[in-house]
Amino acid sequence: MAADSANVDIAIVGGGIHGAGIAQRAAAAGHRVLLLEKSQAAAGTSSRSSKLIHGGLRYLETGQLRLVRESLHERSALLRLAPELVRLQRFYIPVYAETRRRPWVLGTGLSLYAVLAGFARGAGFGLVARREWDSLDGLATHGLQQVFHYHDAQTDDAALTRAVLASAQRLGARLAMPATFAGAEMQDSAVSVRYAAQGALHECRARVLVNAAGPWAASVARAVSPALEVPRIELVQGTHLLLPGPPSRGIYYVESPRDGRAIFVMPWHGQLMIGTTEVRYRGDPDAVAPTTGERHYLLGILRRYFPAAADAPGTTMRAFAGLRVLPGGPGHAFHRSRETQLVADRATAPRVISIYGGKLTTFRATAAQVLRLAAPSLPARHAIADVDTLPLTPA
Ligand SMILES: Cc1cc2nc3c(=O)[nH]c(=O)nc-3n(C[C@H](O)[C@H](O)[C@H](O)COP(=O)(O)OP(=O)(O)OC[C@H]3O[C@@H](n4cnc5c(N)ncnc54)[C@H](O)[C@@H]3O)c2cc1C
């Protein structure tokens, strides 16, 4: 086994948005950072999301006000720091005779959303005039009663992750890609970390190990000794379809007639993207793939609201699936909390911190929380940059 020449302050497993955000913030604080990614940047969930940097309007339905306020604050920060990667988009919510969320519910939700955004740029909302309905990308108008509009932001999740990783690297973080975490042993005030890279097994010592392995987080935690607590979690698969004919006016937020779930129809790199689903997943995270049932479900919704797009001749359909990490429990995943869970091996001076769940939108806030938790275990260093003013540009 090759002993790693440099010991580090923080070793991170995972080159998704969370690992990237933590590497950037830790390096900016002057820490010595090593990030291990078994494949390539954003190979996991961080390239398979709905690509929204949003407060999460629908989380108001489940009373997750703290999460919505924090997410809207993070949306403002990312619009400011990454204007080439995160852009405001106009969203439309059509209301039909059979729509479950009635106009007064949507109006109240959008008002609260504007308040929680602190009336920031793009916080306003309104109704699309009836005479303009025919210009809404072929949206079905039979039974249409009202169309709300408001703003939220869209990104390229993989490009954003690559930009944050590049920023971390410029600040001195070492990115090992591909490098597969193989196991770790906790000692009194350090962790000995083993990983495989370039055909050899390496070992390095870190003051803190951060497990940012997304859907693989539980298996990474189980490779640490002495054994760590792994919370009760569920993996929930989400699929998106890609079809020709992108909507040109913005993003549509429609309701599944079958189960009332909120679904996005959006432009994505010159195509129409529709998603997402929520299906319990029990297999190997590496093997997640869209199912026939999910394709039918999403196509059925598209046919209801954009019949011409769903039935365009010669339509070939691409699809991709990702995995949410949600707290385990009864009830439908749609209503389950989206809050991030941070689990440390001990209350004071933690050696291993694991991240379960979370949002692309809130990666900066999660990274700040992880570093606050890790602080007692880390040596004092001089900060070399401030991530709150550091621009993020396409890598
Ligand atoms: C369908 C879907 C839609 C979503 N939509 C949105 C949205 O619109 N907006 C939003 O804010 N959030 C959204 N999310 C949530 C968001 O995408 C995730 O919270 C986020 O991408 C998780 O990032 P992560 O870094 O924790 O995990 P990942 O991106 O999965 O990264 C984990 C990384 O760890 C690596 N890894 C695993 N095991 C090892 C090992 N042993 N050694 C080394 N590396 C390893 C993997 O290769 C992977 O790259 C969505 C999630 C899903 C599933």
How would you describe this structure to a colleague?
- By secondary structure, this protein is α/β, with parallel strands linked by helices.
- It folds into three domains: about 1-45 and about 160-230 and about 340-375, FAD/NAD(P)-binding domain (3-Layer(bba) Sandwich); about 75-155, no CATH class; about 235-325, D-Amino Acid Oxidase, Chain A, domain 2, CATH 3.30.9.10.
- Helix content is about 25%, strand content about 30%.
- The chain has eight helices and 20 strands.
- It has helices spanning about 15-30, 65-80, 105-115, 155-170, 215-220, 290-305, 305-310, 365-375; strands at about 1-5, 10-15, 35, 50-55, 85-95, 125, 145-155, 175, 180-185, 190-195, 200-210, 225, 235-245, 250-255, 260-270, 270-275, 280, 320-325, 340-345, 350-355.
- Strands 1, 2, 3, 8, 9, 10, 11, 12, 19 and 20 form a ten-stranded mixed β-sheet that branches.
- A hairpin with a 6-residue loop joins strand 14 and strand 15.
- The model has no long low-confidence stretch (mean pLDDT about 95).
- Bound molecules: flavin-adenine dinucleotide.
- Flavin-adenine dinucleotide (FAD) binds next to helix 1, strand 9 and strand 18.
CATH superfamily heading of the largest domain: FAD/NAD(P)-binding domain
Estimated radius of gyration: 22 Å
Extended strand count: 20
Taking pLDDT < 50 over at least 5 consecutive residues as the criterion, the unreliable ranges are: none
Largest sheet, in brief, is: 10 strands, mixed
In CATH's first tier, which class of the largest domain applies? Alpha Beta
